[in-house]
Amino acid sequence: GAVVSQHPSRVICKSGTSVKIECRSLDFQATTMFWYRQFPKKSLMLMATSNEGSKATYEQGVEKDKFLINHASLTLSTLTVTSAHPEDSSFYICSAAGPTYDEQYFGPGTRLTVT
Amino acid sequence: QKEVEQDPGPLSVPEGAIVSLNCTYSNSAFQYFMWYRQYSRKGPELLMYTYSSGNKEDGRFTAQVDKSSKYISLFIRDSQPSDSATYLCAMSAGNTDKLIFGTGTRLQVFP
Fold first, then answer.
1. What is the spatial distance between Cα B106 and Cα A110, in angstroms, rounded to a whole number?
2. Cα B91 from Cα B109, distance rounded (Å)
3. I want to staple A77 with a disulfide (CB 3.0 to 4.6 A). Which of A38, A71, B57, B69 is the partner?
4. Model pLDDT, residue A1
5. Is pLDDT of A102 > 80?
6. Which of A19, A45, A31, A24 is nearest to A111 (CA)?
């Protein structure tokens, strides 16, 4: 399967600061990238879908001004958590897909802890 | 009712056992079905991908889809301790539709 990387793997930040997470598809061009959030013992919750060169589509209940997504190229998407609060602490996972979404390849995830 | 239901487990089996993991769903529009394996603190890894009803085999893994019953299964033969992970089912209505995930079943295979 395709390889997707995420950076950083773990980040601790103070409340009120912003954090950027990068997602890269290393061996294929990802037309679409997805950002998920996962709580302990819960399933993946889709936050947004981003297509290269266009604005991300956010799921209902996800604040677009708080979770800024940029998909500048076919191999890179970034998620910026702005003005982070402790309730934003979670496991954030990206995935990448080609023209169809049925086969998605996931990154290793980023553990965000906001103190 | 959730769109996708999956027993969270944990499921604990001895090495060598046959494991059956299951998901049910309510949306008859779902056409694409996947199984992902997720190790602790890692991202999900695609294991199996099926489109039609019936069985699909890959090594020790067999995915089964029964669209009439809205029921999918993943069988693991000769289970190994390295199979210990959370298994997530996922499905979508179209190949450009978002995936809907089950909550995952935690499997533990003990030596």
1. 21
2. 26
3. A71
4. 66
5. no
6. A19
Nearest by CB to residue A108, choosing from B32, B43, B92, is B43
Cβ pair B43:A46 closer than 8 A? no
Direct distance between the N- and C-terminal alpha carbons of chain A, in angstroms, rounded to an integer:
36
Region A43-66: mean pLDDT is 91
Give mean pLDDT, residues B50-71: 93
Whether a cis peptide bond, with omega within 30° of 0, leads into A108 is no
Nearest-angstrom CA–CA distance, B31 and B100: 12
Gap between the Cα atoms of A107 and A88, Å rounded: 19
Is residue B82 helix, strand or coil?
Answer: helix
**B64 with B83: CB under 8 angstroms?**
no
Measured in degrees and rounded to the nearest 5, phi and psi for residue B34 equal -135, 155
**In this complex, do B98 and A101 lie within 8 Å of one another by their Cβ atoms?**
yes
Higher pLDDT pick, B2 / A37 = A37
- Determine, for residues B101 and A44 on separate chains, whether the beta-carbon distance falls below 8 Å: yes
Name the β-bridge partners of B48.
Answer: B35
CB contact set of B69 (below 8 Å; sequence gap of 6+): B24
